Amino acid sequence: QVQLVESGGGLVQPGGSLRLSCAASGIISSIYSMGWYRQAPGKQRELVAVINSGGSTNYADSVKGRFTISRDNAKNTAYLQMNSLKPEDTAVYYCNADVWTVVGGRVGSWGQGTQVTVSS
User: Fold this and answer.
1) Is the pLDDT of residue 76 over 90?
2) Do 94 and 7 form a contact (C-beta atoms < 8 A)?
3) Which tens digit of pLDDT belongs to each residue from 33-70?
4) DSSP characters over the chain
5) Confidence of residue 1 (pLDDT cuts 50, 70, 90)
6) CA distance 28 to 4
7) Among 66, 69, 57, which residue's Cα sits nearest to residue 20?
8) Are strands 114-118 and 10-12 parallel, antiparallel or unpaired?
9) What torsion, rounded to 10 degrees, do the Cα atoms 104, 108, 115, 88 define?
10) How far apart are CA 93 and CA 114, in angstroms?
């Protein structure tokens, strides 16, 4: 099994900052990529940011220049630093990992989601 545990969500005022963390554990051999997705009420889940094992990153246009994804490979942990937050960033944020297991299989795993609310 591969589990992802997220933390760091909460309520913040517009213009504020939050940092989300995602720690992966289980039968992990290596993690190819980790990413953050979000889903607002009534909307589809969308990719926010992704980082691969070599450190290359991609971002949704809506968060470029404001959000930064990073990872600590030794800790199997990814982070999402969110600055200059806007009300439209309000959503449940989910961590995803593309994992090679110790038995050689490749699996995708999702975290439980953490609520981010940006409001005055």
Assistant:
1) yes
2) no
3) 999 999 999 999 999 999 998 899 999 999 999 999 99
4) -EEEEEE--EEE-TT--EEEEEEEEESEEEEEEEEEEEE-TTS--EEEEEEETT--EEE-TTTTTTEEEEEEGGGTEEEEEE-S--GGG-EEEEEEEEEEETTS-EEEEE---EEEEE--
5) confident
6) 11
7) 69
8) parallel
9) 130
10) 5
Token pair 């289980």 is found at: 26
Tokens of 102: 């110790």
Residue for token digits 């994992």? 99
**What is the structure's pLDDT at 119?**
96
